[in-house]
Amino acid sequence: GERVKRGFINSDTFPDFVCWDDRGTITVLFGTSRIDSFVTALVLHEGPVVFQYTADAVVLTDCDGDGRDDLVLFEGGYSETAGSDPIGRVMYFKGGNSLKTTPTEIRTGHTREDFIGGQAYVGKLIDTVNRYMVEVRSYPPKFNLVLYPLGAGFTLTPRDTFMLVLDSNRVYSYALCLTDIDNDNVEDILLGT
């Protein structure tokens, strides 16, 4: 893969890796006691149109509070009509000693104007205790920040949505960051357009 994220997906103490490339292939590798040896746990071939992932569209974090990282893929280019009219989808793969090629849960967008599968981040956005996976759905000049609460019983069902509306229709690209600017242990939202 051309891009890599590191985590702990199975129950051992060796780091695991999620690798992906621009051709639409994702590979999950379980680490072993040898630094140069891995076990291939999962390979997905989504195709380059669906799978145009940046690092912000592949989330590797403990979603359900079991101590193992889970994999969540945000596919903004997904279409049920062979590439035209992208509606997007989000796929959740529960971590464990093995991974299934069928996701634990899938959510699919409804229309091109109401797609899902934007960039995603993880942080404590509301208080100092609860973690959220935050999906950014961009409908310029409007941005929806969709919050999925992390913890026991995790599902791809959002709890809250924040809407940011810019005063200009000329948004061609954006960058978003969650970081604790004011040192209060709650992430703040930085949005640049």
Task: Reconstruct the topology from this structure.
Layout: E1 3-7, E2 16-20, E3 25-31, E4 38-45, E5 58-61, E6 70-75, E7 89-93, E8 105-108, E9 119-123, E10 132-139, E11 142-149, E12 160-165, E13 175-179, E14 188-192
Antiparallel strand pairs: 1-2, 2-3, 3-4, 5-6, 6-7, 7-8, 9-10, 10-11, 11-12, 13-14
Written as H for each helix and E for each strand, in order along the chain, the element string is EEEEEEEEEEEEEE
- Determine the mean pLDDT: 87
Work out the strand percent.
Answer: 35-45%
Number of helices: 0
Residue runs with pLDDT of under 50 for 5 or more positions: none
Distance between the termini: 29 Å
Class derived from helix and strand content: mainly beta
Q: Radius of gyration, rounded?
A: 17 Å
Could you tell me the number of beta strands? 14
Sheet with the most strands, sense and barrel status? 4 strands, antiparallel
Question: What portion of residues is helical?
Answer: under 10%
Net shape = globular
- List the strand order in the largest sheet: 1-2-3-4
Question: How would you characterize the overall build of this protein?
Answer:
With 193 residues, the chain is mostly beta strands. Helices cover 0% and strands 42% of the residues. It contains no helices and 14 strands. It has strands at residues 3-7, 16-20, 25-31, 38-45, 58-61, 70-75, 89-93, 105-108, 119-123, 132-139, 142-149, 160-165, 175-179, 188-192. The radius of gyration is 17 Å and the shape is globular. The mean pLDDT is 87.
